[in-house]
Amino acid sequence: MNVLFLCTGNSCRSILAEATFKHLAPAGWQVMSAGSQPTGQVHPRSLALLQREGIASDGYYSKSWEQLPARPDIVITVCGSAAGETCPAYLGPVLRSHWGVADPAHATGSDDEIDAAFFSAYRILRTRIEALLQLPPATLTQDRAALKAELDRIGTLLA
């Protein structure tokens, strides 16, 4: 199953989700991230957070949804603006869910406060990814409506 984490800029939340998913997922899962309007760079605090958490951070870059290596089965939007955008037609009839998370790139304050905003976004995404990976295989493969309902429910979980 191919999962795409989609955000507008593909610099913080979608990158954190992709790296975390890749770190936690068993064999058979494929994950990618993209942006509808990529910034062209990954936020340095995202990469630093991944390294602190023991998650590989090499090779991530901000990319467009037009550069996907595979067609996703599931598209999970992680920011409000991407949730309202229409997925490109070439993605086909993908299953969509919205897992909104506040953008830590807009955090202000001290370095500690900004780092805390990044960590909060990471913890929320990790909690949701762990819940997705615990779904029974039958939910993932046999009942599209049940999977959509579970993905939407998971999108409400907090860290």
Distance between the termini: 25 Å
Structural class by helix and strand composition: alpha/beta
Q: Enumerate how many helices there are, as a single number.
A: 6
- Tell how many strands the DSSP assignment holds: 4
Q: What's the shape?
A: globular
Taking all Cα atoms into account, the compactness measure Rg is 15 Å
Our estimate of the beta-strand percent is 5-15%
Low-confidence stretches: none
Assembly state here?
single chain
Order of SSEs, N→C? Answer: EHEHEHEHHH
Outline the biggest β-sheet: 4 strands, parallel
Instruction: Give the strand order of the largest sheet, numbering strands 1, 2, ... along the chain.
Output: 2-1-3-4
Relative helix content: 40-55%
Q: Mean pLDDT, as a whole number?
A: 91
Topology readout:
Blueprint: E1 2-7, H1 13-24, E2 30-35, H2 44-52, E3 74-77, H3 80-83, E4 95-98, H4 111-133, H5 137-141, H6 144-154
Parallel strand pairs: 1-2, 1-3, 3-4
Helix pairs in contact: 1-4
Task: Please name the defining characteristics of this protein.
159 residues, 4 strands
Describe this structure in words.
It contains six helices and four strands; from the N terminus they run βαβαβαβααα. The chain is an alpha/beta fold and 159 residues long. Helix 1 links the parallel strand 1 and strand 2. The mean pLDDT is 91.
Compact description:
With 159 residues, this protein is α/β, with parallel strands linked by helices. The chain has six helices and four strands, in the order E-H-E-H-E-H-E-H-H-H.
